[in-house]
Automatic annotation (TrEMBL):
Pfam families: Neprosin (PF03080), Neprosin_AP (PF14365). Signal peptide: none annotated. PROSITE patterns: NEPROSIN_PEP_CD (PS52045). The gene is LOC107893258. This is Neprosin PEP catalytic domain-containing protein.
Amino acid sequence: MQRYLEQILSFTNIYTIFFCQNKKLGRHQKQSTNMASCFSMARVFLAFLVVASSLGHVFSSPLLSDSGDRQRANHTKEIQRLKLKLRRINAYLNKINKPAFKTIQSPDGDVIDCVLSHLQPAFDHPALQGQKPHFVQEDPPERPNGYKYTEAVAESESFQLWADSGESCPEGTVPIRRTRQKDIQRASSITRYGRRRVRRDSTGSGHEHAVAFEKGDEYYGAKASLNVWAPRVCNEYEFSLSQIWIISGSFGNDLNTIEAGWQVSPELYGDNNPRFFTYWTTDAYRATGCYNLLCSGFIQTNNKVAIGAAISPTSSYNGRQFEIGLIVWKDPKHGNWWLELGSGILVGYWPAILFSHLRSHANMIQFGGEIMNSRSSSSGLHTSTQMGSGHFAQQGFGKAAYFRNLQRVDWDNNLLPITNLRLLADHSNCYDITQGRNNLWGTYFYYGGPGRNVRCP
């Protein structure tokens, strides 16, 4: 401020001399008198300008200071907000990632933690606290009558990329894909991480299906073999999956489901690899249940299969087809819903106590594909996210995705062929489905599609 005033006063002296030397003096006045008067008048005028300028500077400075203070305050608040979010993420990670007995680095970048069976996330559930995992060796579940292993797919547990490391989890532990900070940051919120994305705008849910189902009876399980593809998913807000659904209750807020299959979900996993997954809910995806082991509930018993890990190899167009076999059924001995993969690989179970309607039985079983279309109808364009192989059902074997040997489990734990199959395609110009039956494949169907095309703009 002092330097500023000194510059103004220096300018005042220069201006005074210039002004007075150029002023026309009166004829009857002495030059010295007029010069003195001129200097006096000029100094008074310029002194006024100096004071005014100084006051202006004084009054304007607080405004500039206030603006800077506001910017600093906003910056501080943003830092505090980010620190709080990071603390919440780390607290969640400390809760979901259990202590590892052994850690395995997967070739695809995943980290697999071998966690002691009794420490897995399932036992954080209030209804399961204090319990121990079911020891399959001592008390195996009662498999359905008529279940044969001859058509088994996934003949060994080495159908996942993490197993290519040559490492394995020891007996008494279960392999769990580690959740990392970047996984949480891709989600819309910590509370929604690991849960189904459900759109609630006026354009609908955004979920589109090409499925086969049977209902109208009491169901105690479902079985099928399905080939695995790597469909293109357009963005992190979308997914593409193929799965079995075990369903009970209405399609309102009391919907109970058990789900298992393969999926591509960039938001959940950070890549476009197809991955083996499970899901469950007891309130139509609102608050209960989650994918894989990202919340308490599903109890894993297998030490060689990592739920959520990438599947390899996959099927190729006009080339080799790779498939997995899945069966979900209700064990008549203890009432739990078991998941088996391939040729007799027991993965784990959903305790019946988790559910309301599914505590007794299902009233519908469903098979097929589902995608998430994040585009609203107002945009005028459908998503190009693929379902299955990305090709329509009519293209058949080697080109389209399929489910084969569809079967159900009845009240007496008998495995029976499905004979009353119904088909549903929400948008048949985008994704469709066709069914068939023969002696080799039993009841089967092809399904899928490319999404946006000339018939599905």
